[in-house]
Design brief:
The chain is α/β, with parallel strands linked by helices. About 30% of the residues lie in helices and about 30% in strands. It folds into 2 domains: about 60 residues, 2,3-Dihydroxybiphenyl 1,2-Dioxygenase, domain 1 (Roll), CATH 3.10.180.10; about 80 residues, 2,3-Dihydroxybiphenyl 1,2-Dioxygenase, domain 1 (Roll). The protein is built from 5 helices and 8 strands.
Length: about 160
Amino acid sequence: MIPKNTLCLWYDTDALQAATFYASIFPDSEVKAVHHAPADFPSGKEGDVLTVEFTVLGIPCVGLNGGKAFKQTEAFSFQIATDDQEETDRLWNAIVGNGGQESACGWCKDKWGLNWQITPRVLTEAFTNPDKGIAKRAFEAMMEMRKIDIAKIEAAIRG
């Protein structure tokens, strides 16, 4: 059955490689189907991989090999809630270590230009805390980081 809402992610030509990578690092993720172009199109030929149906943490996605007309931006990102430093490190290192790029405050970009926020739950709970002192300290600690260091966030929470 086709889901009512699916994220469509634009890739130059590597939707299948990206979907396979995501399925290898995120639980509840898989490549579901690969569809080939039935005819030539502006950025490809008949038989090329045109779309890939996949899930990321259960979220239905379609990867479209649309060519170089559009690029990913930080206007869209997957925000992944992590439970501990081991999970945070594993996901961050997988994305950055596979041709990706670090950014600030828990953000990174994969080698296809898609943006990810690897965000420990403790951080979100802290900067949304009704105690403004806790929220401010956690937020200020986060602003100094690339990959989130949970021990430093916890230290900021304690003051």
